[in-house]
């Protein structure tokens, strides 16, 4: 996701400074015009963070802490744990740093094309100060409240998105099992009330066994565990999400975790 956003910014004429925990991974972006920095927090007044978990975000900010400066804006696109996200925002505000949790709904490919949605939590004036970035980063942007609100909203959207994808996988596996051509089933479903956008993004990949990564299965499993944790704290069961978790854990155990999340269909195929 970080690479996709960097490419968008470069294509739109921004000067972009990059940093990665593994420097090797930034070489392609540097070749396209980005500049490497050992501490981008010191080099930039607006910083986009794109990491795996809230814990990693905090560890990286601790590592680069010397670069934090008053008036700076941090846009954190990580799908994080809501309470940790809100607490991090409070700590940064105490240092004069403005923080937005801004998780992205959509795959890295959708972000690369500017077709994703950004959900933003944090002060309205900080959100508005990044209006030019939202126009580059996404097709739609929603400001949903104070810091931590976007992390909660992202879990809600990912719950529904993930279940749509799992339902599509089960439907296509069911079609194969009862002798219906999956391509024909996909065409009919896409033209019926069964339609979801998951069919556009994942349908052909499932049919063609093309699990090149748009978003890793293990990454969505991490998000589902965050959903279940938040629901448990609220005293609410999520039976469908819990079933989805078990399916993805089976996929991960079968060695599919680093493949695209459409690979969940393989767990269902193997049962048939």
Quaternary arrangement of the chains shown?
single chain
Number of strands: 8
CATH class of the largest domain, please? Alpha Beta
Helical residue percent band: 40-55%
Shape-level CATH architecture of the largest domain: 3-Layer(aba) Sandwich
Distance between the termini: 35 Å
Q: What count of structural domains?
A: 2
- Morphology: globular
The Cα radius of gyration reads: 20 Å
Q: Helix/strand/pairing class, anyone?
A: mainly alpha
How much of the sequence lies in strands comes to 5-15%
CATH-assigned fold name of the largest domain: Rossmann fold
Characterization of this structure:
With 272 residues, the protein is mainly α. It has two domains: 2-146, 3-Layer(aba) Sandwich (Rossmann fold), CATH 3.40.50; 152-271, N-(1-d-carboxylethyl)-l-norvaline Dehydrogenase, domain 2, CATH 1.10.1040. The protein has helices at residues 2-11, 27-31, 40-43, 54-63, 82-93, 108-112, 124-128, 131-137, 149-177, 182-190, 197-208, 217-233, 239-253, 264-271, and strands at residues 17-18, 35-36, 46-49, 73-76, 98-101, 104-105, 117-120, 140-143. The longest helix has 29 residues, at 149-177. The chain is built from 14 helices and eight strands. A three-stranded parallel sheet has the order 3-4-5. The protein has a three-stranded mixed sheet with strand order 6-7-8, with helices on both faces. A two-stranded parallel sheet has the order 1-2. It is globular and about 65 Å long. β4 (73-76), α5 (82-93) and β5 (98-101) form a beta-alpha-beta unit.
């Amino acid at each position: 996701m970080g690479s996709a956003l960097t490419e968008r910014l470069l294509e739109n004429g921004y000067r972009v400074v990059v940093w990665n925990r593994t420097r090797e991974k930034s070489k392609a972006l540097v070749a396209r015009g980005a500049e490497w920095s050992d501490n981008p927090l010191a080099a930039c007044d607006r910083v986009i963070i794109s990491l795996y978990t809230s814990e990693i975000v905090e560890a990286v900010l601790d590592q680069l802490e010397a670069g934090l400066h008053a008036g700076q804006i941090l846009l954190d696109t990580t799908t994080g744990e809501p309470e940790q996200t809100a607490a991090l925002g409070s700590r940064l505000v105490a240092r004069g740093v403005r923080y937005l949790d801004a998780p992205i709904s959509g795959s890295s490919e959708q972000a690369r094309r500017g077709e994703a949605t950004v959900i933003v939590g944090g002060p309205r004036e900080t959100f508005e100060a990044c209006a030019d970035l939202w126009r580059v980063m996404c097709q739609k942007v929603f400001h949903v409240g104070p810091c931590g609100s976007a992390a909660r909203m992202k879990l809600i959207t990912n719950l529904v998105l993930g279940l749509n994808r799992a339902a599509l996988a089960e439907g296509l596996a069911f079609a194969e099992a009862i002798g219906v051509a999956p391509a024909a089933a996909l065409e009919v479903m896409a033209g019926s009330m069964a339609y979801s956008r998951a069919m556009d993004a994942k349908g052909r990949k499932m049919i063609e066994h093309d699990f090149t990564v748009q978003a890793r299965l293990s990454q969505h499993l991490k998000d589902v565990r965050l959903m279940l944790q938040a629901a448990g704290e609220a005293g609410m069961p999520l039976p469908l999400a819990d079933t989805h978790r078990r399916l993805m854990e089976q996929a991960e155990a079968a060695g599919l975790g680093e493949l695209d999340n459409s690979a969940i269909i393989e767990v269902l195929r193997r049962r048939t």
